[in-house]
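explain this.
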Amino acid sequence: MSNKKSLKHLRSKDELFVTNVSEYFKKNPGPDKRSIIQRTIQATGVSRRTIYRLWKERSKRAPYKPVDGFDESVIRNKIHEFYTYSRQLPTLKNLLTVLKTEIGFPGSRWLLRKTLRKMGFVWKRTTDNRKVLIEKPSIVRQRLAFYAKKKELEDKGYCLVYMDETWIDTAFTAKRCWQRDDLPGVIPPCNRGQRLLVVHAESRNGFIKGAQLVYKASSSSGDYHHEMNGQNFTKWLKEKLLPNLHSPSAIVMENASYHSMQAEKFPTSSSRKQEIKEWLRKQNIAFDDGLLKPQLLDLCRLHKLEPSYSVDQIIRRHGHEVLRLPPYHPDFNAIELIWSQLKILVRHRNFTFSYVNQHNKSNETVAISEQEEMDTHCQALETCDDVTRFVDVNLESVKEFNTDEKKDTMRIVDGNKA
C-alpha cells in the first residue's frame, strides 16, 4: 500500500506545510538535478497530483493586502463604537461583517484576529474595578493600618489564625477525564445537587483541630454568604474555634456583616425617638428633652464612638485578638490559598454525588492538608504583604515627588512669564 497522502486527508495546516516545503525547494534548488516536485514528494510523502492541486489553488488566491495605519484606526474606532454606541460585544464575526462593509477588509477571521493581536488587543477574561477601588485613599489607609496592627500583634507573640467560609456542591466533580465510547468515565448529574458550607480556621501549624464545621445550605445557588448569619457564626466561634486555641492568637477575618455585628447599635433615622434618647442618656450626653428627632440624631453624630463589635468582645474575653482585613483584600487571607487545593481534591474523589459521601469527602480532604503546605502559604502571604507595603510606601513618595516637581515647574513658568 502506498504511503502517499491524498489531498482529502490533509488538513489546512498540512497543506500549508507542503506548500512551504515546495516554495523552499524553489528558492534553494540544491546540487542534485532532481526536480522540485520530486524533492517535495520525497520530503512530504504526498502525491504529485496533490502538489499540483495545491499550487493551482495557491495561484487562484487573491494577493495579500496588508492592513495600513488608516485601517487600524478604523478597526480601533469600530471596536469602541461596539462598546459605547451599539452596546454589543465586538466578536470576530460581528466585527468582520462591519469592516467588510465599511472599509472592504480583505481577509478572513484569521487575518482579523492576527491584526487585532498586532494592534495590542487580547481576548481574555473581563476584570472588575477592584484595582481602582483598592487604591482609594481610605482603602490605602486601612491597608497600612492592617500592616501596622499585624506587626504589633506578631511582636507581642500572637499566633495568626486565618478563618473563612467556602462552599462545595454534591455534584462538584471533574469536568474533564479520559474517556471513550465504551468507557464514559465520570458522568455528573444535570443539576448541582445540595450545597455544603465549610467553615474552618488555620494557622502556620495547619488547620485548627476541632474547628471544622460542614453543614447543608438551604439554597444551592447565589452567594453562599447569606447562608451564614451572626447567630450561627457566634455559635461556631464559641463551640468550635475558641475552645481549640491553646495559645494567644490573633484571628484574621474579613468584614462580612455577620462578623461585624455591633455590640451596641448606633441610632439611625429608623430608630424611635425614645431609643435615641436612651442611647444619649447611656453615653451621659446632656440634651434638651424638647428637641426633635433630627436634632437628636445630629447630637448623636457629634458624639459617635468607634464601632464595638460583639464578636471582638467574645474573642478578647478568651484572651485573643481580632485582625480585620482591609476591604477588597481577600488575597491577604492565607486560608483562601488552601480552599482551591481542597476543591481540586474533592473534584478528583467525588463519584457518588450524594450528600453523605460529599460530607465525608470534605472531612477527608481537610485531613489530607499537611503542615508544610500551610507554612508555605503563610510565607508566601508574608512576602506578598511585604511587597504590597513597599509599593504603598514608595508610591506615596513618588506622588509627593511628582507634586513637588510640578510645583517647581509652575514656578519656573511663572517666572519666565514675568
Summary: Residues 149-263+308-384 form a domain with the Nucleotidyltransferase; domain 5 fold (CATH 3.30.420.10). The longest strand covers residues 159-169.
